[in-house]
Amino acid sequence: MDVHGTVAEGFEPVRDAFARNFATLGERGAAVAVHRDGHRVVDLWAGTKDVDGTDPWEHGTAQVVRSATKGVAAAVLLLLHQRGHLDLDAPVGHYWPEFKAQGKERVLVRHVLNHRAGLPVLDHPLTPEQALDPLRGPEAVAAQAPAWEPGTDHGYHALTYGWLLDELVRRVTGQGTGAWLASQIAGPLGLDLWLGLPDAEAGRVGRVGRVEGPEPTGGLRARPKRSVTEAYEDPASLTRRAFAAITPFPDQNDPAYRAAALPATNAIATADGLARFYAALIGDTAGASRLFTQETVRLARAEESAGRDRVLVVGTRFGLGYMLHGSASPFLTPVSFGHPGRGGALGFADPDSGIAFGYVTNGFRKTVTADPRAQGLVRAVRGALGLQT
């Protein structure tokens, strides 16, 4: 496999790890980018643009990043808070009165971001067509009763997170999350990152699909008790119901799906676009203003939820909108914050080292987090920096 691109001196192990993903882990097409203190130190790509094709992956090929979308969307709410337009400790119903139904008066804005709202499932799942309608998802979660007392426990809001967040943004700004992201973040910074793909960019996006490879040895797949896979197979479990809030799940290669804006699942990005987004959050994008103040970075990475996740059935850690470093989401150091995408993609920032990381792939695996391809790359970055595991 020919690996294209460049690495700065000292980051050669990342190239080696990237090549191993193709040689031993079933990678078909992928890219990885790493920025450090305003400088791009890794920019690599290889394989095919489409998981089932032969056209080469090119510099600038983009892919659906699935739940890595959540970290991108979280920045919108945090920036609205930073600018004084949104109070994290206000009830959601203050901005969205219809949401108060079914005993949800005490759900706070921060509960949406830290997965404590108690709303990971829908009693009446949406069809793909309904899910792409920007009104139907928020209507469904507004009518839904909580699965537990909001604020008392946490569980991953796999799909409902997007509708909760999007309606808050719409009520506060008059725009959907995708439009606000384009006008306030991606556009000004020139990021190859979209939530709602423009027609003009459609030709850059590869087809995605399932690939097989060796079983992961860490994260959510390696545990002695009930695994997330076993929980997913139980139709009555919160796990199964959370991921089935849209049934069946839309075809991720469908132009209509890619053109819609689902802030939990369907952002599209290049690896460098995802890395530059995280670099901008912590102030390391060369020539651009820092997006997050020090206080907002603290909010993003301060632990809000930790322990056994009622949906993912293992221990997870969340700040406000971001997964935090831990066994379910191994990042670079304990201060890292970011978000994986189910099946492979990963984006995160590490304020202490000045690292911002982006990895995208067209080959989705069964992993929910801790994909072995992404983790091999993270370990290589850690080694290049001389950091302990």
UniProtKB/TrEMBL annotation:
Stretches for region Disordered: 208-227
InterPro entries: Beta-lactam-related (IPR001466), Beta-lactam/transpept-like (IPR012338), Beta-lactamase/esterase (IPR052907)
Superkingdom of this protein's organism: Bacteria
Domain Beta-lactamase-related: 18-374
SUPFAM superfamilies listed in its UniProt record: beta-lactamase/transpeptidase-like
A UniProt-annotated Pfam family: Beta-lactamase
Alphabetized Gene3D superfamilies for the sequence: DD-peptidase/beta-lactamase superfamily (3.40.710.10)
Name by which UniProt lists this protein: Esterase
Organism of provenance: Streptomyces swartbergensis
